[in-house]
Write a structure and sequence with these properties.
- It comes from Brevundimonas intermedia.
- Residues 68-79 have a biased composition (Basic residues).
- Residues 68-114 are annotated as: Disordered.
- This protein has one domain (16-144).
- The mean pLDDT is 84.
- The protein has a two-stranded antiparallel ribbon.
- The chain is mainly alpha-helical.
- 57% of the residues lie in helices and 4% in strands.
- It has helices at 12-22, 25-50, 70-75, 92-99, 110-117, 121-147, and strands spanning 63-65, 85-87.
Length: 151
């Protein structure tokens, strides 16, 4: 079984505190989802550009999502409160295209896309989180000002 990638991220206590300051758990979760989706966009674009043209609807399948197929969910072990997945989804053609068969050589697209962007990912996620936190704080401040009694 391949080893899961690991990252060292600094500043999580600050991000965690900023999310707690926002107050609503749903808002914090949405901030995380938006940040992960934005950070995953370059990987998604990259794997789509690497897929061979003659592989049918593979390029249009999948994308960036919080959902897995039933089979993928059965094999997946949740490791974080918010997870985002990038790739061709449940398209069985994706497996044979990425890894090959006994009669067809592999034409990987997802792994090279991951390798291309994985080193930048922690910094991009951090920047996206702060950006989303700042936007949420600005929205909360506008709402507070709007609801404040006029006097």
């Amino acid at each position: 079984m391949p080893r899961s990638p690991s990252f060292k991220i600094e500043g999580l206590k600050d991000i965690d505190q900023a999310l707690l300051d926002i107050g609503k758990k749903a808002t914090a979760k949405n901030i995380g989802r938006r940040a992960l989706r934005n950070a995953a966009e370059p990987i998604d674009q990259s794997w789509r550009s690497k897929v061979r043209v003659d592989t049918g609807d593979l390029r249009e399948s999948g994308g960036i999502s919080t959902k897995l197929t039933r089979r993928q969910r059965a094999q997946h072990k949740k490791t974080a409160p918010i997870e985002m997945f990038v790739g061709p989804g449940g398209n069985p053609q994706a497996i044979t295209e990425e890894f090959g068969t006994n009669t067809h050589p592999p034409h990987p697209s997802l792994r090279p896309a991951w390798d291309e962007h994985r080193h930048d990912l922690p910094a991009v996620i951090g920047a996206e989180l702060w950006s989303e936190i700042e936007k949420a704080a600005a929205r909360a401040a506008r709402k507070t000002a709007r609801l404040a009694p006029k006097g």
